[in-house]
Amino acid sequence: MVNFLTCLNSPEICMVTRDFSGYDVAKVLANAGNFRWVTTQGDHAILKWEHPDGPEVEKRTVSVPLHDRVRTGTLRGIAEDAGGKDFDEFCKWVDRNR
């Protein structure tokens, strides 16, 4: 676990990047998150996920703008739509898998 003093002395350890392109986010959701890239509408990728036990259990649809940089608020909404409970963990996961 990283504590406050570690972050103070080595901020690069504690910083969570939120600087992703839309293509990076969509690619990670499709490759590591088991989402299907269903279609592209304008400049948005539409991805769908179904629970392994079937769509009647749970399904999700995520729209990702394919911009050079996704704004933090938009990224937060994508994380929620994708089922991410912790925004920082979602960002770390995207960063690790891109």
Number of spatially distinct domains: 1
Secondary-structure element series = HHHEEEHH
Total strands: the figure is 3
| Inertia-based shape | globular
Estimate the strand proportion. Answer: 15-25%
Looking at this structure, what is the CATH superfamily?
Hypothetical protein
What would you call the quaternary organization? single chain
User: What is the CATH architecture term?
Assistant: 2-Layer Sandwich
**Level-1 CATH class name:** Alpha Beta
Mean pLDDT metric: 88
Give the class from helix and strand content and strand pairing. alpha+beta
- Report the uncertain regions: 1-8
Give the terminus-to-terminus CA distance.
24 Å
Number of continuous helical runs: 5
Radius of gyration: 15 Å
CATH fold-level name = Metal Transport, Frataxin, Chain A
Largest pleated sheet? 3 strands, antiparallel
Main β-sheet, spatial strand arrangement:
1-2-3
Approximate helicity band: 40-55%
